[in-house]
Amino acid sequence: MAVSVTIAPPTLDDGAEFIAAVRESRPLHHPWVDTADTVERYVEYLERTTRTDHALFLVRHDTCGRLVGFININGIVFGSFRSGYLGYAAFSSHAGRGLMAAGLHRVLQTAFGPLALHRLEANIQPHNAPSIALVRRFGFQREGISPRYLKVDGQWRDHERWALTAEMWDPARSPVGDAPVT
Questions:
Q1: Coil, helix or strand for 179?
Q2: Coil vs helix vs strand at 20
Q3: Max alpha carbon distance in the chain (Å)?
């Protein structure tokens, strides 16, 4: 069975659905992610779409049209570095079905294709097994740990550094087992 998702930058029209999905997904996200759960925070999130150092994507399920999650590439540096930081979260309505993997596959195609990045780094809290499993599917390698790296849920939390370079990424690797991505 094909897993079919679409990625697109967020728009103002996506705001109400995004905020509702974030609020519904709080038990899934806590303490890993704290994202836009109000109109004000969503507008701030949208403002990043105008910056050249960010690439933001909403992942939608092609069959039902609902939001699956979001994937961001933040802190993009071009020039000789050509790198960015990957952030993402699934929404509880579609979690655990391989849809975020399909979305990440599309984002990696964009990152290593049109954006021409050389490296993506994902910083993940050590006990966040689903997020670690997601990046491992694509060949990200664990590079180490950053103590007290990022303040999440009011606490400075350790994060593992996982990275993937353009040379390491295999675009033919299916993100969801044998299921083709369309």
A1: coil
A2: helix
A3: 42
When pLDDT is cut at 50, 70 and 90, the band that residue 26 belongs to is: confident
Residue 137's nearest CA partner among 82, 110, 99, 111 is: 99
Please compute the mean of the pLDDT values over residues 167-176 and round it to a whole number. 78
pLDDT at 37 over 90: no
- What integer is the mean pLDDT of 17-26? 91
Closest CA to 104 of 36, 141, 58, 166: 58
What distances in angstroms separate CA 158 from CA 8, 37, 56, 125, one per listed residue? Answer: 31, 24, 24, 6
Residue 162 · residue 137 · CB < 8 Å: no
Collapsing DSSP to helix, strand or coil, 32 comes out as coil
Total residues belonging to the chain = 182
- Say if residue 73's pLDDT is above 80: yes
Strand partners, 78: none
Contact 137, 83 (CB under 8 A): no
Task: Please give the model's pTM, rounded to 2 decimal places.
Answer: 0.89
Element at 41 (helix H, strand E): helix 39-47
Could you give the angle at the alpha carbon of 74 between the alpha carbons of 148 and 53, nearest 5°?
135
